[in-house]
């Protein structure tokens, strides 16, 4: 649905130029929620703005639903953009217009007939749960409600693609949850493909099918959320993972435990995979298993858990226990000593 191939974007200023996107390729499939995560300056905003040509890439190809966006002249580009909704961190609502008008005005500007405008405004205000706020002004709404209006406005053009530029970054945790639930609902109910950018791993965890991690304008890691969670290879990705699964075990503790046996990180999918396997280890081997930290989070489609476990016992027994866990399908990684 969205295909970026070898996209480069260079911002040239007098003194220096910035390579904001460096050979970026990614493919977002129809109907999926695809997240791009990275720290500030990684190139996320530039990437998402290139998809609807708010920013023109210096090089490369960008296709949305088969249409090569980089080659479109103004009238055709306007047409293609109708198929791509966008929501922003700052909501971008018209302050002097009511909620109803905020949705109706852009529809009017694109030539939608009056009766159809009324139908769509009502329908999408209902979808986002704000029917009663039609006559309110943005200043009378909470941040979460403003974002709901922005989502209704984007949906009212009935796009196939929704771009989300840090849509929950200005919201408190509870409101963030509610907006993420809403994005999930519109993805499932309307089959809208969502490309979002974020600096919060929680957003990726909660609603994304696939993720790309960006750094210095490059995609450094990409894949299914479940795979990236289990096998994050890059240091930056691991740092993002640490925000969900903090592993701040003091060095002194690590050092003394390492002398008594290996410390391992277990990752498991589903409610029950990890703990029964550990219980089995305790039964089958002369190994004492000590869970040092653990957390389970809900991914879009399944729960995912992670544990740090210290195995105490002879080298032979602990190695056999690790081999058993691997055989059982648990993802096992050794935690290095200090
Ligand atoms: N219009 C511009 N002119 C010059 N440089 C720019 C422009 N827009 C972005 N950049 C630079 O491109 C790089 C990537 O910026 P971008 O905003 O895409 O990153 P980001 O990951 O979205 O960061 P943030 O989360 O802080 O928004 C940065 O070094 C930034 O300074």
Automatic annotation (TrEMBL):
One GO BP annotation of this record: amino acid transport
Tree of life domain = Bacteria
Q: Which CDD domains match?
A: ABC_MetN_methionine_transporter
Q: What is the name listed in the Swiss-Prot or TrEMBL entry for this protein?
A: Methionine ABC transporter ATP-binding protein
Q: Which residues form a coiled coil?
A: none
Please spell out the taxonomic lineage of the organism that makes this protein. Bacteria, Bacillati, Bacillota, Bacilli, Bacillales
Single annotated GO MF: ATP hydrolysis activity
Which UniProt keywords are present, listed alphabetically? Amino-acid transport, ATP-binding, Cell membrane, Membrane, Nucleotide-binding, Translocase, Transport
Spell out the Pfam families in the cross-references. ABC_tran (PF00005), NIL (PF09383)
The UniProt entry, under InterPro entries, shows: AAA+_ATPase, ABC_transporter-like_ATP-bd, ABC_transporter-like_CS, ACT-like_dom_sf, MetN_ABC, MetN_ABC_transporter-like, NIL_domain, P-loop_NTPase
Enumerate the SMART domains for this protein: AAA (SM00382), NIL (SM00930)
The ABC transporter domain covers 2-241
Presence of the UniProt keyword Glycosyltransferase in the record = no
